[in-house]
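Aim 2 progress update. The chain analyzed this quarter is reproduced below.
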Amino acid sequence: MVASPDAKYMTPQEYLEWEEHQDIKYEYINGEVFAMTGGTIPHNDIAFNLASALKSHLRGSACRVNIADAKVGVSEKGPFHYPDVVVSCHPRDKQAIQFIQYPCLIVEVLSPSTEAYDRGKKFLQYRRIQTLQEYVLIDAEKISLDCFRINDKGIWELHPYEEGDEVNLTSVDFRFPISLVYEDVQFPA
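Predicted structure tokens:
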């Protein structure tokens, strides 16, 4: 994520209208826009593998699965982010055109340059979404997946998974071997 060189503060509506005419995606945080940089091939493969499996698992349900080009709004006024994978089972998101607002599951594939932000400030923003039940962070450099799940007391708990583990995403009732996420992924040497 890179700050826009000609930064000027925008209202949420100005951002939504402006971004429709841009060649690249921009996230919106507190009136500022940030250009989204491209990811690696392993990053893409991991997101695609999970999104494909989720799509197949949720086929015929009330849920929709979206990938990197689907924007999530923490509220109608932002911030707005582009997670790698997002699932919403909320009826209002079925009609969504500009952004998803009621996700139950958000997934980010980590890169060294964004890991601290994804684990910190971005997660802090996502936690404001009332419908969010799980936030998943997937390592693109080794087999490791962290699932943060909100418990019945409203506290986010970490459920880490490593090589050989079966992952359980309770928000969408989906169990799968962690190897599914890393199918055909080549790690950096």
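The first helix runs from residue 12 to 19. The CA atoms of residues 68 and 100 lie 12 Å apart. These observations will guide the mutagenesis experiments scheduled for the next reporting period.
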